[in-house]
Specification:
Elements: H1 7-24, H2 28-34, H3 39-47, H4 66-79, H5 81-101, H6 104-116, E1 121-124, E2 140-143, E3 147-158, E4 165-171, E5 181-187, E6 193-198, E7 209-220, E8 224-225, H7 231-267, E9 269-270, E10 273-274, H8 279-308, H9 313-338, H10 349-358, H11 366-379
Parallel strand pairs: 1-4
Antiparallel strand pairs: 2-3, 3-7, 4-5, 5-8, 6-7, 9-10
């Protein structure tokens, strides 16, 4: 077992850390206040290869491994989880899905632009009646021979208003249950494809989240991903990789909050000494650091499983379950360590606390992760 990062991994981590501090940090509070999508920063992340981290260079990607991916996600998330979730969705759900299951024509047409950041992708699975219960798709795709007609609603779609390419999961044959579901590539601007108002959210306010409406949208047959009826399996496998990205995001949020709390505790004085010298604060820091390191090991293990070609369904679910719990608990502690200052925006920790909550919800709630883990244990 080797717990050391390679020189290449250290260089990748440091590049992401530098970008986060020099580019994401200035204006992050203002973007959160205004719910402002970081358009120019997304372009810069594309130029750095952050939007196609694991994509083969022949399709314009960086050709890096999953370890590199989680290192980048952690560093970006320490500063701006709104930016990092754009990176996560584009990499884990859209680029991965297209590269792993798409046709060569689909890869040439869509993946090459997504991997470089020329286009931004969105993944459309959740519906008003089908969030955690992904088999209950109400969005329909009726086969018309050389094309499909799609009708339905998708909600909570990250980058929903800014994306160019949308992967949409829809029901083609309800009688076949999960085997009657397909995945389709839609483009912004298709007739009948409407984007609803931006959601006003608790956290990750800089990312666009929208409801999408499909009214008799005509989609060419060649835009179906994979064989007929393979959409549910496509979605579940894609989400397994997505959970690694969100676990890394949760890790970054927790780690960022810890770093701010540690720094503050060494500067703030009470009762004649820095508050880090009081056991009440010192023990909080010890708990935070220990839990964050444990979460980091689980996130790295899931990424390693993916890189090794192992089944990572269980390890990714475990990593997301635990890292999101740590993020929620210890961002609250970071606010507590800051006292009254923690309750104001200037010190950043209140934003990290708000951002942390969504990591327990999207790409499978914590309860869904427990279902994935327990089923895996029972099968073993």
């Amino acid at each position: 077992m080797n717990f050391s990062l390679s020189e290449e991994h250290i260089m990748i981590r440091d590049a992401a850390r530098d970008f986060a501090k020099t580019e994401l940090l200035p204006g992050v509070i203002e973007r959160d206040n205004k719910q402002e999508f970081p358009q120019e920063l997304v372009k810069k992340m594309g130029d750095l290869g952050f939007l196609g981290i694991m994509v083969d260079p022949k399709y314009g990607g960086s050709g890096m491994d999953a370890i590199s991916y989680v290192l980048i996600m952690e560093e970006l998330s320490k500063i701006d989880a709104s930016a990092s979730v754009i990176v996560s969705v584009n990499n884990s759900l859209v680029c991965y899905g297209l590269e792993s299951y798409g046709s060569e024509e689909q890869k040439q047409k869509y993946l090459t632009k997504l991997a470089t950041g020329e286009s931004v992708g969105a993944f459309c699975l959740s519906e008003p009646e089908a969030g955690s219960d992904a088999t209950s798709q109400r969005t329909t795709a009726i086969d018309k021979g050389d094309h499909y007609i799609i009708n339905g609603t998708k909600n909570w779609i990250t980058s929903g208003g800014r994306a160019d390419v949308y992967i949409v999961i829809a029901q083609t044959d309800r009688d076949k249950g999960s085997h009657g579901i397909n995945a389709f590539i839609l483009e912004k601007g298709m007739k009948g494809f409407d984007i609803g108002p931006k959601e006003d959210k608790l956290g990750i306010r800089g990312s666009d989240t929208h409801t999408l409406q499909f009214n008799d949208v005509k989609v060419p047959k060649e835009n179906r991903i994979g064989a007929n009826g393979s959409g549910f399996r496509f979605a579940m496998k894609t989400l397994s990789g997505g959970r690694i990205g969100i676990a890394a995001q949760a890790l970054g949020i927790a780690s960022g909050a810890y770093e701010l709390a540690l720094k503050y505790s060494k500067e703030r004085k009470a009762f004649g000494t820095e508050i880090c010298n009081h056991q009440a604060i010192a023990f909080k820091l010890a708990d935070m650091y220990t839990d964050i390191e444990a979460a980091r090991m689980m996130v790295m293990k899931a990424a390693w499983d993916k890189d090794q070609g192992n089944n990572y369904d269980k390890s990714s679910a475990m990593a997301k379950l635990y890292a999101s719990k740590v993020a929620m608990e210890h961002t609250v502690e970071a606010v507590q360590i800051h006292g009254g200052n923690g309750f104001v925006k200037e010190y950043h920790v209140e934003r990290l606390m708000r951002d942390a909550k969504i990591t327990q919800i999207y790409e499978g709630t914590s309860e869904i992760q427990k279902i994935v883990i327990s089923r895996s244990l029972i099968k073993e």
